Each structure stands twice: as structure tokens, then as C-alpha cells.
Protein 1
Amino acid sequence: MSIHGENLRKVTTQRLLEMKRRGEKISMLTAYDFTMGTIVDNAGVDIILVGDSASNVMCGNVTTLPITLDQMIFLAKSVVRGAKRAMVVVDMPFGTYQGNSREALASAIRIMKETHGDCLKVEGGEEVLESVKRILSAGIPVMGHLGLMPQSINKFGSYSVRAQEQSEADKLVKDAHLLEEAGCFAIVLEKIPAKLAKQVASELTIPVIGIGAGGDVDGQVLVIHDMLGLTQDFSPRFLRRYANLQEIMNDAISHYVSDVKTGNFPNDKEQY
Ligand code: KIV
């Protein structure tokens, strides 16, 4: 798909709401740099998430916790330069919004001012509601994130499916309503039973974007490195690999190494 005419219209929170109302599914993918942001935008993705999964796939950390505000700002700035149509959502990194809503607002304002992104995403429900409300009060759109919340991995203890117990499912439904009432424009639900995600999507008027949350939600998100097969060691059931770029890159790079070693590159035409 290429973008032109009507499709070039920038994706806004209002357009996402309209998409939900008319049953048009929302596509969302992560990107962390200018080139990837440009490719994802040109391919017609509705929302680009500058996810804190950058901590894993870009920086090689085991969790999302170490990535800093400065690092997220650096990555988001580059993505924004490449995104013409897609909405760019920037993850607020761990430690920048939990516990202190004034600091949360200060971090949020820094991200918006320095990156020119469109919106922010935060993980959590009731616990972060004060921060969410304060950020929203500055006119900054916020996307929620419930279910498996990687910033809470040390509390959860594993990346297994969340909200399988009734008490956790009840809390998730309550949190989703609290986030909608506070004014969030959308919510990501990560790795929860499909039936529960379907219930949340049908109860809320704002779009619900799933990752490992089944098909009965308003849109889907994946980490681009995973869906393109750049990463190979991460294979949850919900992940569909659309390409095997690791193999393609490995073949190309080893071919280059061999050409350099044998003197086959550069040839006569590849020089001045
Ligand atoms: O950081 C991220 O990539 C995310 C997605 C998994 C939703 O939050």
C-alpha cells in the first residue's frame, strides 16, 4: 500500500475514534529510528510506537527498565522525522511517571517539546491515574497499557499471560474504565485472554489495541524486530513473523565479507 490523497491525512486521536466506530481495524508497529519510521509510515501503518522495547531490541538490555528519558527522546526525534501520516506515540520510560505526577508532567512535556511526537503511552491503571490526569490536563494525549506490563516484570516475575485469575481480570476491566474516564484516547492490552480483551474492547468507546490479546479488539501492535524476523530468540504464540530478515541480512553480510576477503569487491566499475 502506498500513501497518497486522502490517505496522507495525518492520523489523529479523532480519526482513531472514528475508525473504531466504523469497525476499521487499527494497525500499529514499533520503530526506533528514521529509516524504519519512514518505511513503516510509507507502508501505511496507522500508529508508530517508539516503544521502550527499544531497551531490548536496540540497546540489548534484558528488560525495558534501564532505558532513559534522554535515550527515548533521541530515538523518538528520529522516528518523527520519518513519519508523515502515522501518529507517533512515545513510551514514557520506567521511573519517569510512577509515584510523582509533577515529575510525570515535566517528563511528558520534555518528550513532547523535544521530539514533536503526537502522544505518550504509560503502563498501569489506578496506580498511575494521578500522573495520567496531570499529563492530560496539559493537553497531551495519553495511551494506556494494561495486562502484561514489561516495566513491572520484577513484580510479575515472568512474561506469562496476565489476568487469568478472576481478581486480576476484574482489576484490569476496572483500570480500563478508569483510564477511559480520565481521558485516555486508546489502550494497549498485552498478553491477556482473548475473551477478556474482547469484553474490554466492547465496553470501551476508545480503541483497544492488542498484542497477544486475540482478534476481537480494535487493532493490533507488534514489535517490528520480531515481526520482521530480525530477532529469532523470542517466539511467543501471538507473534507472526512476516519475514526472516536475520537470515537475509546474514547472507548479505557474509557475502560481503567473502567478497572483501577474495578481492571481488570493489570491482573496476565500483571505483573512481
Ligand atoms: O514497548 C513496546 O514495544 C510496547 C509494545 C509491546 C506494545 O509497549
Protein 2
Amino acid sequence: MTDSETLFSRDTLDEMRAAVHETVDRTPVTDIHTHVYAPAFGGLLLWGMDELLTYHYLIAEVIRASRIEPAAFFAQSKREQADFIWRTLFIERSPYSEACRGVLTVLDRLGLDVASRDLAAYRDYFARKSVEDYINTVFERTNLESVVMTNDPFDDAERPVWEAGAAMDKRFHAALRIDPILNDWTGACARLQGWGYNVDERLSGTALAEVRRFLTDWLQKTRALYMAVSLPQDFAYPENSARARLIDECIIPVAKEQHVPFAMMIGVKRAMNPALKLAGDGVAKSDAGAVERLCAAYPDAKFMVTMLARENQHELSIAARKFPNLFLFGCWWFLNVPSLIEEMTRMRFELLGTSVLPQHSDSRVLDQVLYKWSHSRAIIARVLADKYADLLRTGWTLKQSEIDRDVAGLLGGNFWDFLKQA
Ligand code: FIX
Ligand code: ZN
């Protein structure tokens, strides 16, 4: 009997569980939201030991643990910051927070000796690698098919690479990030004017047409799979604001015309502690009703949504039951910890069946895909096996090929299908 003919029933629950874990491990992932860059972007692609150790999640943890003044921490060189984080969080304390554990999973997945605690040896491993070779290693060991970047045309380091028409490694897809337009229209307006777009702050008809032209130009230049924005905890829709007008008059029409979803990541409380810089952002509950109203107002537009507050997850899942044009993805940022991934994934599977994308990595450092996917795969497999076990207990049977189909969807296929939908 070939694998695809294997049939699981209530008499073979253990075998089914083993098969689910094996299937989740061998099924390639599409990581639909990251902050990693293709090699064409040079120094924007972060990798290696010191980048791993100075991840902003760990900066927040080290400032808390050591009570160092944030300014004194940031005055150090990157290598000194990494040394300080290693000593404070890994040597003087047990590194079981999710962000610390992640560094150790990365080292382990690369075949390094975690027990040695030998930072110099870890640095040496990376120093001997070329970036091309390292990217291949990471993609292979993560079993990663492709990643979606976060591409910001307002970023002066990134924009010239696109403008030069650099060739892209096919494993890296683009997503057009438009935060400045929706979160700081005054600032974005001045930049657009500087690039020759005839826009004005009060959003005249000409300005709206020019914003649409800008978005279309950049979707075409980057071949982005979707447009994306992160929105604050007080995001409201509809409302009398530049943001709501820009959504209604620019984002939605362009999304429909170009057949791309509009991805909203909602609930960030930017600069809760500004002294911590990138590590200083927080979370607060948002109004999931804003998502419901957008989905209802534009049934022919496609929305991808993830929300940052745990408290929003239930109503967001219910909204997705009501609106087929709403695609839920990932356990974002502070939710990307095992207990909450498990809770959210279980709830989403129970409410939405196979029609979600349970995880993205949000990796900022390439190496992090190794740990984020290793940790998430284990949870997704466990929850899926539990749900299948419930099914089999009814007398239902499950073929291996059906497990393959479901897992392929959950690890990326559902996203590609959503992109293809009319
Ligand atoms: O806005 C975002 O895309 C966030 O994911 C990031 O900006 C955030 O800093 C992060 O790294 C979260 O994981
Ligand atoms: Zn992100």
C-alpha cells in the first residue's frame, strides 16, 4: 500500500498522530509575512549571531532583566549589545522565554552544540558562511518554499533597489507596505510630492487619483502579492479621517483593480515606551467591528487580517465565518508564543475548519525562520491531530492523501488559493 492509500480510523489514533506530525514536518511552508529581504537588498538582509541576539524582542527582555538605561544599552556597538544580551539572558538566567529559546533552537537546527554555551564558536560558524550558502541552508532546514517580504517604498534604503530593477531571488515575494499613507498622511503627502505625484493634504480628487497611481506603480514595480498596513489599536471604520477616505477611495479601488488583497494588522500601540525604540511597541484591544464593516462594505474586495490582542481573536474568527472575503492569518508578534498559538489555532480550527492560515513567522533575521517554524509546526501538528482524533472517534476515516491536502493548505496553500479567488 502506498502512503496516499493509508486509511486512519478510531482504531489507529496513534498512527494517525504520528502521520500528522510527519506530514507537517515534510510539507514546505510559504511564510506570508516576514521582514527578511532578498539578497538583492544587500545589508537589509539580516542574519547571523549578533543579529539574532539583538532582535528587538530580546532587547525588551534584557532592558527589563538588567534595568540598564535604554540609552546606555543603545550606545553600545551591536557586538557589545549581543555580548550583554548573551550574558544577561542566557548565562545569568535560564533562557526559557520564547525569544531566548528561539535563539537556541536556531543553533540546534544548524547543528551547533547548544550545551557548550560557546558564543565565540557560534559567531565563528556564521563568519565562515557566505550569504548565498546560508540562505540555502536556512531554506532547506526550515523546509521553506518561499517567504513574503515587507516592502516599504518610503524606505530610503529599500526604494533604490526596486528602482534599479534588481533581479529578485524567486524564493522572496514582495508585499507592498503602505503604513505612511494610512498612518501619517501629512508626511506621506510631502514624500509623494517629492516623487512627482500631484497630491495635496486635503485629498482633492486629483490627489486621490495620484495616490491610486502611486499604489498601482508600486504594485507593478514590486509585483507585490498584497498591500499591507499595520494599524493602531484605535483604528476605526468608517470615520471622518484621511485614513478612511484613503481606504475608500484609493486602497480598495486599487486592490480590486489589481486583484490583490488588502492586509490589515491591527492593534499595535506604537511607542508605548519610546526609549526602547523598535522594542517599545505594545498592544491594546481594538474594534473588530471595523473589520466587519469593511468586509460588509466591500464584498468584492479581499481582506487579510491579523489582530494583535488576544481579546480580539474570538470575534475576529466569528467575523471570518460571516465574510468569505476575510482571510485570517498568523499569530502576530506578542501572540507568537506557544500557549497562545495553541489556543488560537485550536479555536480557529474549531470555528473555521481548514480555511485559515494559522501562522506566519514575522522573522526579522533570516535565521529566525528556523525556530519560528520549528516551534509552530509542532503546535499546528498537535492541534490538527487532536481535531482529527475527534473526527475519527465519530467513525469517520481519513486518508493520508487527505492529511497531505489539509496540511498543504494550512502551511501556505490556503493563502495562494485566496490570492487566486475572484
Ligand atoms: O508591523 C509589523 O509588521 C510588525 O510585525 C513589526 O513591525 C514588529 O516590530 C515585529 O517585528 C513583530 O514581530
Ligand atoms: Zn511584521
Protein 3
Amino acid sequence: MAEPLKAVRGMHDILPDATPAWQFVEQTITAILQRYGYQEIRLPVLEKTELFERSIGEETDIVSKEMYTFTDRSGESLTLRPEGTAGGVRAGLEHGLFHNTSRRLWYMGPMFRHERPQKGRTRQFHQIGVEAFGLAGADVDAELIIMCARFWRELGLDGLQLEINTLGTPESRQQYRRVLTDYFRDHKDKLDEDSRRRLDSNPLRILDSKNKELRGLIEAAPVMTDYLDTESLDHFTRLKELIDAAGVAYRFNPRLVRGLDYYNRTVFEWLTDKLGAQGAVCAGGRYDGLVEYFGGKPTPAIGFAMGLERLIGLLEASEASYDTPQPHVYFVVAGETAVDAAMRLAEECRDRLPALRLLMHCGGGSLKSQFKKADKSGADIAVILGDEEVRRRVAAIKPLRMDGEQIEVDWAALPGTLEQMLRL
Ligand code: HAM
């Protein structure tokens, strides 16, 4: 017999037992986004490869080794999106969304990176991303961070630490980059292979190295803040004042650099130590130059994205509580004439009680087997209809997970009785 087919490595099914947690996270966060005035944008999963090469940067890990890139049937090079910011900028420019106005947007969906799968790291993963365009001040940077703190609070997550840094302007970073390159070149013999490769292409990323043997060298390296322009420093000071005033705790990490090239000024990450090695749950920063780089008018921008797999991992680790919606009513139907009447009655109940979750038994079978299913469904109540009840135009109501005796009601009284019993 042939081996059963399996999902692609690093791409996971999210099974019915797991979806309530996903729905809770998605609904909580998107409701908060709406309360802050952010609008949803839906973007294609496929984009031209060039979009990511030019925005994320050719030397980054994402572009140089992790993209799912292929040539389509028309000979065009396309890539499954590894993130959402580039597509957001592309769509905004294509549809004139940034003309003379600011925009606060969010998106949600799968992203793809060919990384080595491990706990908290998958090849298809899901993000909710948030992007604010056309706003230059530190106020919006603070708004995003304060909004994140609200996400965690309302989700019931604990143990998330905020790290912030500023990367300055491209010019001031260039100067720092030269100093840093000289420093690492003087210690080239101590660098590992990866860091040597980055020495010329992207020396800032050496600061991000996970190699413990480099820790001492990295800690003694020159710090970016000493080379920043005053405007970027002022921006950063203002941001810190605003988040201090909001009571959001943070750690200044001068070595926080981010793995994508488009950032300037503010960068930040929310980290946890509850998920093992993959501790970054949410990350982002300013990318003031990206819209102009793609041919638009100068448009400041800032955003971040959260990894939903990691958020859900943290939800479980935090033992946060959320609803797992089970049916209120299981409709037991015994007998030939009962099916027609039950179908009609169920629709009447659904019309009258929009909050009601009613699971209709389909497929016949003995009363005993239907009650087994009713019990397994987690329903609070069974409504029972047999030929005898149909003849007398009544239905039986049997509490399964509530106190009380079995009762009988007229059909006309069924919705009202359920409403009362279930407090809908
Ligand atoms: P990023 O840091 O590459 O930034 O990804 C953001 C988040 O996505 C990470 O903090 C992590 O939670 C999650 N994530 C990334 N890769 C994986 C993976 N392989 N498996 C599971 N989760 C993952 C961005 O994507 C930027 N576009 C964020 C941004 C928006 N910056 C400005 N605007």
C-alpha cells in the first residue's frame, strides 16, 4: 500500500482542537486594532521576487537563503511572501493610499520562510502585522508600543519584555558601520565563518550573532548610540518619555539590530523566555525610506508584526483562559416524521436566538447512540423530538450539563424556553 501523504515539512495543519485559541487571539487583537482606528488590508501571498530582494535586502538571511522562489508558467520569478511590510508598501503605492494622508493599516495571514524547523519556528507561519504610514513623530511609535502592551494584557499573557533601540538615519548608521567594520576586522581571527562573511556585507548583523563564543567581542564593540545624529536621539528620547508616561516597561538594548535592511531610527522587539530559543513574539520598527525607495513621495512609516504560533505558545504557557465554543443544544431526532419537524424547529430557534449554538443530529440511529453523541458534543441541553412528540406538537428538553428535570414544551414555546434556560 502507498504511504499516506503528509504535509510539507515545516508547514502545519491547525486542527479543530487548536482553532479556538487562534480565534481568541485573532479576534482579541483585531478588535483592539479597530478600537485604535487601524484598517485591514488584504494582500496577495505571491509577489514579484524583486520586491523582497530590494526591500528586505539581498544580504539578509531571508533573501539570501530562506525565500520560496520559483519561476511561474510565464517565466516570471515569484516568491511566497516571507513578510508583509514590502507588500503593504507596494499596494499602498499602486493604489495611491499614501497621497496627502496618513494611513494606519493591519493585515493577517501566512508567511513563508525556508528556515530550519524547530519549536516556535516553522516554514509556513502566521503574522498579524501593523503599519502606520505618513506619520513622522515619536507619538505614533509610542502608540504602537502602547497598543502592543494592551494586546498582551487583554490576551492574558505574561512575561513579555520589551527591548528598544534606535538605528539613527542611514547616514549616521553608515558612519557607525565603518567604525564597526574596522573593529571587527581588527579581531577577524576571532570571528566565525558567518560573521566573516557579514564583515563586508552587513557588519551590524554580527551584533545579532547567536554564537556564544563571540559574546565578549560583541559586548566590547563600539555602540551605535555614540554615533547617532541628534534628531534621531531626540526622537528616541521623546519615545522613551511617552512610553514611560504610559507605564510600559522596557530595556534599552543598543545591540538590537533586526534582520531586515529597511529599518531606521526606532526598532523594538517583545521577547519571552517561556518558548525556548525562539523568544521574539513581536518585532518591528521605522522604515522611513522605503516608500520613497520604491518611487513614492517621502513617506515616513513604522510597523511591526507578531508571530501567531509564538503568541499561541505563550498563551498556553501563561495558562490564559478563553472560550472554547461548544454547542448549547444537541437536537436528538428519532423517527421518520421527526426529521422534517426538527429541521423546521431548529431554523425557528436560530431565527429567534442569534447567539444560540445548536447542533442538529444528522444520519439517524438509535436514541442511545444519539445521546452518546449529545454528551460528547459538550452541549448543555438535549432537545428531543420523536414521532410521538411530533404527533402532540411538543418537544422534550433534557438538561445535560445543567441542573433540572426533563420537561416538555409546545413547539411555539421552544425558542423562549431555551432563551431563558441558557440566558441568551
Ligand atoms: P520579523 O522579525 O522578521 O519582522 O518577523 C516578525 C515576527 O514574526 C517574529 O518576531 C516572530 O514572532 C514571527 N516569525 C518570524 N519568522 C518565523 C518563523 N519562521 N516561524 C514562526 N514565527 C516567525 C517582520 O516580518 C517585519 N515585516 C515586521 C515589521 C512590520 N516591521 C515593520 N513593519
Protein 4
Amino acid sequence: MDKKSFYITTPIYYPSAKLHIGHAYCTTIADSVARFHRLADEEVFFLTGSDEHGQKIQQKAEEQGITPIEYVNPIVAGFQNLWKLLNISNDDFIRTTEKRHEKVVQEVFRRIYAKGDIYKGAYTGLYCTPCESYWTEHQLDENGCCPDCHRPVQEVSEEAYFFKISKYAHRLLKYIEENPDFIQPVSRRNEMINFINQGMEDLCISRTSFDWGIPVPIDDKHVIYVWFDALTNYLTPIGYLDDPEKFQKFWPANIHLVGKEIVRFHSIIWPCILMALDLPLPKQVFGHGWLVVDGTKMSKSIGNVVDPIGLIEEFGADAIRYFLLREINLGQDGNFSRDALIQRINSDLANDLGNLLHRTLNMVGKFQQGVVLAPEGRSEIDASLIEDAMSTVKTFADDMNNMKISHAIKAVWAFISRANKYIDETAPWALAKDESKKQELANTMYNLVEALRVISGLIYPYMPTTAGKLWQQLNLPGTIEELRLADIEKWGGTPANMHIGQAQQLFPRIEVEKVEQPVKEAKNKSEKQKSKKDKQKESQPEGEISIDDFAKIQLRVAKVLEAEAVPKADKLLKLKIDLGDEQRELVSGIAKQYKPEELVGKNVIVVANLKAAKIRGVVSHGMVLAASAGDDLKLVTVDMPVGSVVR
Ligand code: ME8
């Protein structure tokens, strides 16, 4: 049976400046969607590229005394390099200056002209040079400027070719109304309906005032106006003119993913061009929001442009990809902040995911000499883990099919937390001490490795390199690229008697320089959460927390292995503790009440999932519980095995 096909595009970017993290955001979204559909065993075509013509490029080249192609070549090479560094899996990269594209644009012009939908006229209008857009009077902003960039527009008058967009307005409106998924999110759809209802004028599609463009095939005084040229890129690489079979497979496109400000071009002008060509319309135009820095859109003039290459070098591509996809609800604007990025790396990647892998590999190594033994039977806890895994795969697939990317990631991370909790609930270190619990231990180890196998597939669209590392460290057969959704929709794909691989750190924890840092972040976070809390307040008396709030705190029994004073801090002791499956260091303010030697061997209770902080140069990873009254203070001790969960 033929595979289902899936065609996704990003916009083609202007080589007028270096790309910033906002552009990387758009391409990363498309990449995660393309990778998901490959995982779902579909035949995917993922296109990105560069939009190289137009007056602005010509002007910049002239300013530098070089030709336009000399100007764009190194910039476009920079785009391609960035996509490589970011692990973008595009199947083609289209440059609008390529011959293959010129041929298609000219043919599209010829066909529509032959049909009578392109005519020559005179254009007197308002033109925004930076946006390369014509506007009508009523579209301008309140200051009479460009409604997109708010810069002044110029009145221009010249001979030009026009495309009879007005002829298609009624058909387009009907199509939008009958196909609710065509323009997403809904807010953009409503905007477009309003736009069409205001009345559509024919579109000027040629210019004579510059020559950096594709010549109009019937009149070489004119070059084709950029949007007519740019939008047609979506037809070029899928064989519109030269490979009918390929074209049949991939057209209409499943998703044109674009920024919110260019939804209009994709959901109004582009469908009209397609209707004039008698081609079916794309299934969806999805308008994503902007990535802003401190609430402002990135711009060179403001000086808040974030360079993705520097970030990739510092934190790695997967961490950046994860942050962009997780942090921002697709369709809404989202804020980029270094602090938030570091917090995500530490809590979600190093802590949640890294710890799960590390703890699992450590325990299989320590308790079963590195061999994953065959499971037999299932406890209630096992069954609930498995049920959770399978429902997570389903949520993930549904969400990814519906472009709810951050929602899908949240579901995956909820499962990662669930698997970490499973370790606490089953307490394998205790099972390992009891010969009669050998099979129970084998089952637990199997389930953890199997959960990580499923997780590798679930994180693959977002963090392909990390997913591959996970796969390798588990030593699973084949490669992550060969894995298919169907393989993780069933529990039990990990072969029994498999030897696990070498454990290596996935994400080093990024040390927070100052202790104040987490305080500042916590403050920002608490401000953001304020309105949420306000809502909760209505149903929850002040000072009370819900059971869900309490469940966030992981309390565990730990044995103090070593204790020593922290230099130049008379209240602080540095403790080394054993949590059963790992050892850690933490700092505790108990030096006034306890001598170091009194503490060694004590079983204390520790907040195990407290965010790490640097205190007097020591990274403290957890907090010991103590009861205090005035100056009197006593550690909470308990006679239970190390690693036990306190609830
Ligand atoms: O518009 N956050 O090219 P472009 C999120 N050549 N997305 C952003 C962004 C930000 N801060 N800044 C830019 C063009 N983008 C045309 C497209 S398609 C046939 C022709 C996004 O390089 C922007 O929203 O100006 C747009 O989708 C894309 O980058 C390309 O912008």
C-alpha cells in the first residue's frame, strides 16, 4: 500500500540580514512536524528556502558595490549552515534565483495570462519598500503608514501587470467558510474573513522601477513582483512542470507554516493564484506568533536580535529546539529569555529526563549486571505505568496531528515525571536486597527501560540527537530513525536479555551563577502565575495548598554519608547523601546545632526535587528537613530504608 504523503513548507526567508532566533523558531516547528509525520510512517516532503528578489536586495547590493547575486550568496549559505546546525531535516532548499524556479514562475504567469486573468494597466498606489507591499488607503494604519511595519509608504505610479484577484474573492470566501481548518488558528481565520469582506482589489504583480527579479515572460521591461514569485516556490520542487507523479503525490500541501503577518499573502493571494491555475488549495495555512524579547519583536534597530548560532554553540541545538517548542503555544506570541531557557534545561532536560535515564542505567548496571531480564507478571503499579505510557503515545500523536506541539511535549514530560515517580514507588534498591523479590526487580527494570524506549520515540521530533543518544545508551537494536509510531504504540518492544549500553550525561546542569538568580526567576514566575492564583483563590482559602501542589514535592529518605563545615560560613554544613539510586551533595544551615560527625549515618528526609542552587561556591542539590522553635532545631530523622518516599 502506498504511504500517506505529507507536504509541509516554511516561508522562504529574505536574505536581507542574518537570520535570528525568530526565524529559527518557525523552521524548528516545521521540522518537528515533519519528523513526527516521518515517525508516523508517512512520505514527507519538507521545504524551506530563500526569497532572493526585490528592490530591497538590489538596493543593498548597490550600496555595497556588488551584484545582487553576490550579495545574497553568502547570506543564503549562512541560512543553510544554520539549518544544518539546528538539525533541520528539509528535503529541499529552494532559492528563487534558481533556473528551475524561474521556469515555473514564468509558466505560471503565461498560463494565467492566457486565461485572461492577468492584464496590463497603470498603477498608482501606496508602496512600502521595506515590506515590498502595496496598500490601499483604507488599509494604512492610523498614521497613514504601512499597517505591518508602520513606516511611511510612497505614492508610486507606473505601468504594471495586474492579477484579477477580485474575480476569485467570492469563491475564496466560500472556501474559507466551508473549510474551517484551512486558516488556523481561528483568530487569523476571522481576520482574513474581515479582510476579504472589506473588498479586494486586483493585485499588481509586476514592476518596472528595478530589474532584480524574474522577467515577465511576455514583456521583458517588467520583472515579476516578489509575492507572485515567492509564493510560487511551493510548486517548484515537487515537480509542477516536470514530474506529474511527484506533484500528484504532494499537492495540495498539507501545511504552509508562516508567521502571523504573512497569513494574508498565503490565505488570500496564494489561493487566488492557485484557483486561476485550476489547482486545489492547500489544506492548511497555519499562522504562528512572533518570538519576542522582553515583549518586543526582534529588530536590528532596537538591538534585541538573538543570534541562534551563538545559542546553539552554548547550549546545543536540542536544548534550543526543546525550549522553543515547549515554551510557546503555537499561534501565540512567546517570550525568549535566557533565564527561562536555562531553567528549562536544568529542570526538564538535566533533571527529569537526564535523571530518569541515569537512574535506570545505574540500577540495571548495579542490580542486574547491565542485563534487562524478561518480565513476568504485572503489579498494579506496573499496569498503571504501562497504561500511562500508552495513553501518552496517543495524546502525543493526536496533538502532533493537530499542531498542538507544546501540549504534546507537556504530555511527554508528564510521563517522564511519572516514570521517575515509578522508581520511587517501586523502590528497586529495596527489592534488590530481597532474594524473593528478584522477579519484581526484573519487571521494574524492564518497565523502566521500556518506558525510556517509548520516550526516545516521543522526543524524537523535538530533540532528534538526544533521542538517538537515548537509543544508543539503552543499546536498543536498530536506529532511532528506523523507529515508527506503531513500534511505540505497543508495550514490550525492548528485547529481553538485552545488555544496556554505556551511561553518559545527556545535558549537563547549567550552574546558576548567583544564589539570587533562582530568587529572581521565582519572582518573575510568581508574577506570571499571579492571575492564575487569583482565580484559584476563589475556591481555595488563603494559605492552603491543594493535594496537587503537595504532590509536586518529592520527599525521600536519605542517609548522610559525609558531613563537613563550609569554609567561612558558620551556619552551613556540606552533606553528602545517599538516596538509594544516586548520591548527591547539599548544603544545610544546621552547623550551630550539629557537629559533622554526629550526622554521618543518620537517615534524614530530603526534598529531592528542589532546584539546585550555588551556596558559598557549593552546588546544593536538595534540602534536609528540620523542625525548629526559636534557636532550637532538630533534623527530622526516620527509621526507614534509604530511598523510601515520604508522603
Ligand atoms: O516574509 N518570531 O520573509 P522574512 C517568529 N520572504 N517568526 C518570525 C520572527 C519572529 N521574531 N521574525 C520573522 C518573508 N519571523 C517572505 C516570505 S513566503 C512565500 C515569503 C518569520 O524573512 C516571519 O513571520 O521576512 C515569516 O514567517 C518568516 O520569518 C520569514 O520572514
